[in-house]
Amino acid sequence: MTKSLLNTTFILGGARSGKSRFAENLVTTSGLDRHYLATGRAWDDEMQARIDQHKADRGPSWTTHEEPLDLTERLAAIDGEGRAVLVDCLTLWLTNLMMDGRDIAAQSVALADLLPVAKARLVIVSNEVGLGIVPENRMAREFRDHAGRLHQMIAASAAEVYFIAAGLPLKMKG
């Protein structure tokens, strides 16, 4: 296993499960230069307030990069030794790709292919959306399916995988 795979952690969980807090703690305690790669878009005032609160909570010790679509390219551009990069979150990225009509399969493969060659310590966060009932509409089912396939690829490449529920981490791999 390459060094970069040993430095890749994937964190899954439901909404408000404590995923981001757990991920931020991993990066903070790493002692490395902290980078936050945000994929969310402010579609309305409430989402903008959430984004602003997340930035304020992290504080000035983080460098924030916002990239809603070209995640792999931005991650490659900020990759480097001595850095820890928190990607938050893959499901927001998938939403953006779907809304923009992008090739999700190709984008997913490109991201998974980047992990083995990355030099930075990577911590990747995503929402687990496949534990509930079958969604009632086509778009929601496609989203769930894309997320499930992407999660399998990232988990296969990561050295560590955690599932977070009620703020408690369950180590699934590593």
Mean pLDDT: 93
Q: Name the helicity range.
A: 40-55%
Radius of gyration, in Å, reads 15 Å
Largest beta sheet, briefly? Answer: 7 strands, mixed
Number of distinct beta strands? 7
Question: Could you describe the 3D structure shown?
Answer:
GTP binds at residues 13-20, 38-40, 55-58, 66, 88. One of its GO terms (molecular function) is GTP binding. Its EC number is 2.7.1.156, 2.7.7.62. This protein is of the alpha/beta class. It has one domain: Rossmann fold (3-Layer(aba) Sandwich), CATH 3.40.50. Helices cover 46% and strands 24% of the residues. The chain is built from 7 helices and 7 strands, in the order αβαβαβαβααβαββ. Strands 3-2-4-5-1-6-7 form a 7-stranded mixed β-sheet, with helices on both faces. Helix 6 (104-114) runs parallel beside helix 7. The protein is globular. The two termini are 12 Å apart. The mean pLDDT is 93.
What is the strand and helix layout of this fold?
Layout: H1 3-6, E1 8-13, H2 19-30, E2 33-38, H3 45-58, E3 62-66, H4 71-78, E4 83-88, H5 90-100, H6 104-114, E5 121-127, H7 138-157, E6 160-165, E7 168-173
Parallel strand pairs: 1-5, 1-6, 2-3, 2-4, 4-5
Antiparallel strand pairs: 6-7
Helix pairs in contact: 6-7
Q: Which terms would index this structure?
A:
single chain, 174 residues, alpha/beta, Rossmann fold, 7-stranded mixed beta sheet, 7 helices, globular, GTP-binding, P-loop_NTPase
